[in-house]
Amino acid sequence: MPQQPPLSDCQLSTHNGVATLTFQRNDVRNALTSTAIVDDIVATAAYVNAESSISALIITGGGSAFSSGGNVKDMADKAGDFAEQGCALEQAYRTGIQRMPKAIQSIEVPTIAAINGAAIGAGFDLCNMCDIRIASHNAKFGETFVNLGIIPGDGGAWFLQRLIGYQKAAELTFSGRIIDADEAMQLGLLLKIVAQEQLLSETQILAEQFARQPPQALRRSKRLMQMAQRMELDDFLDVCAAFQSLSHQNEEHVEAVDNMLSEMSSK
């Protein structure tokens, strides 16, 4: 069994097959730069993939914000993650915050962002990297990079348009405006909005629903969902056939079929 990784700026807990990663840097509104949050996300992704007892991951913010994204003060001071220039700064992005989308994309189980407050810039992008988003009424969202004269260097433009289409994503990106949870729901960014005090409990209920499914079929289903976005149909169907063959030979399939037949016979 893999050991739970030591984290610096986040807390990781598990319950009923669900892991919950909570950002613990409310002093900087859970900024993703100049903290160890990205390091903790990367470590958590590797742990979840290796730990077969985990079947869903919730990501949320501790304190008033989900994440404020980049540390604007460090941008102004040319400090922290923004201390380099030219090619060195380009490399700092590649070895810094760009590890986050790769890590989130690599997670084999369903990921749910429980958005407790402001999700701005890279914080908004992080939400969009997850499979599902549930927000409280307090949540705010903004693809605000252009307001600072920069671009979404964490890959946010790749994720946003895949969620809501090019035109809507372009408007949010080019305007840099902040939207509330209701508008995010209308745009199709959110699965649902819940009261602040019910956010984690509602998200846990959904995550546990996923976690009750046969675990290997669940992980394969997520891989297929991701692969379907980038493959031609004929190639994709070949992969489906291979995955399905493996599933039929798996003991969890036999058990699931037996359980279903037992339930049917008892009705």
Secondary-structure map with pairings?
Layout: E1 10-15, E2 18-23, H1 37-50, E3 56-61, E4 65-67, H2 72-77, H3 86-95, H4 99-106, E5 111-115, E6 118-120, H5 122-129, E7 132-136, E8 140-142, H6 156-164, H7 166-175, E9 178-180, H8 181-187, E10 192-194, H9 199-211, H10 215-228, H11 233-248, H12 251-266
Helix pairs in contact: 1-4, 5-6, 6-7, 10-11
Report on this model:
The protein has helices at residues 37-50, 72-77, 86-95, 99-106, 122-129, 156-164, 166-175, 181-187, 199-211, 215-228, 233-248, 251-266; strands spanning 10-15, 18-23, 56-61, 65-67, 111-115, 118-120, 132-136, 140-142, 178-180, 192-194. The strands form 2 sheets. Strands 1-2-3-5-7-10 form a 6-stranded mixed beta sheet, sandwiched between helices. Helix 10 packs antiparallel against helix 11 (233-248). It contains 12 helices and 10 strands. Strand 2 (18-23), helix 1 (37-50) and strand 3 form a beta-alpha-beta unit. With 267 residues, it is α/β, with parallel strands linked by helices. The termini are far apart. The longest helix has 16 residues, at 233-248. The protein folds into 2 domains: 10-211, 2-enoyl-CoA Hydratase, Chain A, domain 1 (Alpha-Beta Complex); 215-266. The mean pLDDT is 96.
